[in-house]
Hints:
Blueprint: E1 4-6, E2 19-23, E3 26-30, E4 37-38, E5 47-50, E6 55-63, E7 70-77, E8 81-84, E9 95-98, E10 103-112, E11 118-127, H1 143-146, E12 167-171, E13 176-178, E14 198-202, H2 204-211, E15 224-232, E16 234-237, E17 258-260, E18 272-274, E19 279-280, E20 283-284, E21 287-291, E22 295-297, E23 320-322, H3 334-343, H4 349-352, H5 365-375
Parallel strand pairs: 1-21
Antiparallel strand pairs: 2-3, 4-6, 5-11, 6-10, 7-9, 7-11, 8-10, 12-13, 12-14, 14-15, 15-21, 16-17, 16-18, 19-20, 22-23
Amino acid sequence: MGALILGTIGFSWAIFTTKTERQGALNIIAANTSCPISSEELNDNNQITIEQGQEKEITIELSNQSKINVHSLITYSGDGVEVSYAPESKDNLDIEDLAVSESKTIKLYIKNTSETSQTVTINVHCGMSSKTLEPGVNENNVETEHVPVLTCEELPQPNAPVLGNMIPVRYDGTKWVKADSSNKDNNWYNYCNQEWANAVTVISSERNNLTNASVGTEIPMNAINTMWVWIPRYEYDTTNLGTSYSSGTKTEPGAINIKFIDGTGIGSEGNYKVHPAFKFGEDELEGFWYGKFETSNKEQTCTAKDYSAGTNCDQTTFTLQIKPNAISWRGIRPSTAFTVSQKMVTDFKTEYGFSGTEDTHMSKNSEWGAVAYLSQSTYGKYGNEK
Length: 386
């Protein structure tokens, strides 16, 4: 489906960094977490050499130096070795829960069943998770096989934005520049790094020049009249919302588990649900555009908080804009806001470069909810203090 464009209140999303990994059946989301291990028996690379047929007990100290509670999973690599918590058990390394600043002393037993000496590497993977699940193992006891790692880039990726007549942009640290619409080398967006796709419309006098400009060309703010963020279709875990606060607290809720969906697919079965914002009437959406900042008007003469019809702010003749550092459009009735939103693709479509086939409207609760859920996931601001 074509993009759904919403002329409404929106917010700016900062650029963050994070990565999602999968350890067996446990979703471990690494986001600015630090869980070092130390041991007198291990070298600086967390390795120990075990001779043929030897069994050895080692003690490690696992600590959480992150600013959040974490789950951690101890893994190892080495051919023909068995690592466990107790001599009589095999490959039973479980998930450890660590509070902020908490440390745990753990005894590991290593047995070399091969015919040669072996160097064993002890690893720890830590991060956030809303579930405590048993890690998977296989008979080879090799980390890359019995604890498969999927990077965020190997997980389902978001649907590519539907641009229409808008211009893709990215912030280079000092200014907004034209982005590569093909997203080559993540030039435009990278949701794995919490960099969402942005696009703009520009004033008619600059439209031809900026539309045909090369990638990297500055898109000056005085040429921009609206700025948008792409919200790709996704499903979310429904099991720990509400007063569960996504396994967090009311003041510090946890991450909402999100899975992107290819095309207009129906998603997974079980506890995941496609967010209702991705259905508009009878149409299933690949995603929609949401206003990046609060709605204002180009005239910027409206300052009175007067809700009476036809007064200073309540005018359908004003031109809607979505830009930073502007006075929010206040003193406007919902009926007037509805009208000016729809005028973006009718009376004022040449102002923005829209074709008239788009749908611009005030935000529905479900659409705001979709933005909020994505923001509270690891693809959004969660786990990053910036």
